[in-house]
Structures are given as C-alpha cells and as structure tokens.
Amino acid sequence: MSLTVVGSIAFDAVKTPFGERPKMLGGSAVHFALAASFFDTVRVVGPVGEDFGDAELAVLEGRSVETADIERVAGGQTFFWSGVYGWDLNERETLATELNVFAEFEPKLSEQSRDCDVLFLANIQPELQRQVRDQCRRARFVALDSMNLWIEVAKQSLEAAIADVDCLILNDAELRQLTEQPNLVRAAERILEMGPSVVVAKQGEYGSALITADGFFSLPAFPLADVCDPTGAGDTFAGGFVGYIAAHPDVAISHDLLRRAMAYGTALASFNVQEFGTERVARLTAAEITERVAQLGRITQFVDVPLTLRD
Ligand code: AMP
Q1: Which residues contact ligand 1 via a Cβ below 6 A?
Q2: pLDDT, tens digit (0-9, with 9 covering 90-100), for 244-255
Q3: Is it the case that residue 206 has pLDDT exceeding 90?
Q4: 3-299: CATH topology
Q5: 59 phi/psi in degrees, rounded to 5
Q6: What is the pLDDT averaged over residues 141-156?
C-alpha cells in the first residue's frame, strides 16, 4: 500500500519571537510526508529548482520518503514562502509567496504514484490538486488541504477540487471564509453537502475538530510549555491523520478510526512546533509518537460519575 502527496516543496524564511531561519526546508508536501512516513510508504510529487540540493532531499530520504516523482527543473527556482509570527503564534503574516517552478508545473505521475491507496492533496494551487486527483482514480481515501490565498484567488477551482475528495482539512477561520458561515458546525455542514464525508477544522493551539455525518469530535492541542515555530503544524497534523488511515488498508473508515487518527495527527503536530521547520520531526522516533499519543489519551479522557442534580 502507499500514500501519494502533491503539495509545495519549499524554502521558507520564518521569524518567530524565539528566533529566525532565513532559508530552511519547508512546504506543505514536505511536512506532510515526514509525518506520514511513520505509517506507510510516501511518494512526493512536485517540482523543485536548481537551488534544491542533496541536503534537502536527504531529509526526506532519511525518513525513507520516495522522491522519484520530485522533478528538478533546470534553471528554475524552488517555491519560496516567508512569514512572521508575533507573540500570538496562532496569528502569522505572510510576507512573500513565490510559486516559481510551481507556476508552470504539469504533474505527470509515475505508475507507482498513480496507483496509491490513499492520496493527499496538500496546500498548493487547486488546479494542480485537481490534475493530480484525476490521475489517482484508484485511491480509496482522498483528503485535501488549502488556505486563504487560494480561497481568495481561485475559489471556483478550489470548490471543484473539494467536491471530488472524501475529506477536507482546513483551518477553522478558512472553513468559515470558504463557506461564508460564521458558525463552525454550519460551515462543516456546507462542506458535507459539497461532497466530502469528513471535515477536519484545524484550530491552531486550541487543537482540532472532526465533523462527519456520524457526529462531532474534538481534541485540544497537546499542551507544551515551549512552542518555537508553528510553521507546518497543519501539514504535519495532516500527515499523522491521513497516515493513520493509510496504515489501516483493510479497515472501514469509521468515525472511531477517524477519532484515533486525530490523536496521531495531534501528537505529530506537537513535535513539529517544538523546533523550526522540519528540524524536530526529521529526528523523531516511533516510540516518542506512541508515548505522546498515550499521554494525550490520559489528559483528554474523563469518566462521568452519575450525580443527582437539583431541579
Ligand atoms: P502550515 O503552517 O501548516 O500552514 O504550512 C506552512 C507551509 O506551507 C510552509 O512550509 C510553506 O512553504 C507552505 N506554504 C505557505 N503558503 C503556501 C501556499 N500558498 N501554497 C502552498 N504552500 C504554501
């Protein structure tokens, strides 16, 4: 079984109150792939420029991510994103988004990438997400992430992409923006009417919520005293969430399975934010993830003891 992801493969320049990195490996597909690599074979599809070196590829290959469908464009520049965070790490300002090699990219997937069991359309132009979706018709579960930029500049194309997937994973505020609904439950209902059967709302340091026809589930973010850089947390969450589903090829995708997938997404994302960019997840171990999921289970569980209330 395997998991294919298309999305940005990037250089990021990031500044937070705890430090800065002028040029580090990033991109939605990269963060996703590193996290999902704990669950399945992951194939990354996308272009990079001549400036993308062996050191960057080595980070992916260090987690056994398949990089054969990463195309190096002669004379091209890698996607570049730059952002700055203030003391409220839930808020960030994008300073630059340079599509570079993504502007002309026409995805041609290898047979192995097309043949995936699970597909993740990570944040990138919705048109590219649709082209990749069209090439992976055998996938049993397809999830998609996006962001405010694409809601603003390519809403119709994004809506068409969403209509053709099983699961939408989006920031809480972006779900409201996309559906023009101030209420999260109503926003999720609109999405369920569009085609997907699963909606995940990412809520930054407050966690995430799952909405399906079978109900609602929510988890807090794992409580950490020190958060360094939230860049890529959403993609890392998606890597844990979608990866967990990919790791269960013979299990029906039930609300219970999705709840457990939320716990893995939450655990993975919590490691990502502890250091800059991919630094922490690149040297994460399976045992650390298992331990954090167990801790998360302990801090989120409660058992009601019946009490006679006064009328
Ligand atoms: P997140 O913090 O989960 O939203 O992901 C941040 C990552 O997404 C960074 O590593 C960026 O390179 C990448 N990114 C930022 N803006 C875009 C965009 N418009 N399209 C695709 N990827 C992006």
Answers
A1: 8, 10, 12, 26-28, 81, 97, 123-124, 147, 149, 231-235
A2: 999 999 999 999
A3: yes
A4: UDP-N-acetylmuramoyl-L-alanine:D-glutamate ligase (3.40.1190)
A5: -65, -45
A6: 97
